[in-house]
Specification:
The chain is built from four helices and three strands, in the order H-E-H-H-E-E-H. It has helices at residues 6-18, 27-32, 41-53, 78-88, and strands at residues 25-26, 57-64, 67-76. The two termini are 22 Å apart.
């Protein structure tokens, strides 16, 4: 999985939309989003961590047994905003 996978892009779009009305977005919020329902929980977890590690979202995460247990995004970084501009054309 890389930053330009459709899964990662849709999750970043989901987080961006949700943060317009909420202070934070959780792992559960993302998995419940209509844009993300077609992805497995494992793929969503990998994509969220990829976004956090690459500095596209401000977030806290917690792992257990190599799986994402908790994730809370509180913002989109400057790099994340640039990514969104690129994909929107």
């Amino acid at each position: 999985m890389n930053l330009y996978d459709a899964c990662v892009t849709n999750i970043l779009l989901c987080i961006n939309e949700s943060l317009k009305t909420k202070k934070s977005v959780s792992f559960n919020d993302v998995t419940a989003s209509p844009k993300c329902r077609k992805y497995s929980v494992g793929d969503i977890g990998k994509a969220l961590e990829l976004l956090r590690r690459n500095g596209l979202v401000k977030a806290k995460s917690r792992f257990g047994c190599s799986e994402l247990l908790e994730f809370t995004a509180t913002g989109i970084t400057e790099a994340g905003q640039e990514y969104l501009k690129k994909i929107r054309g």
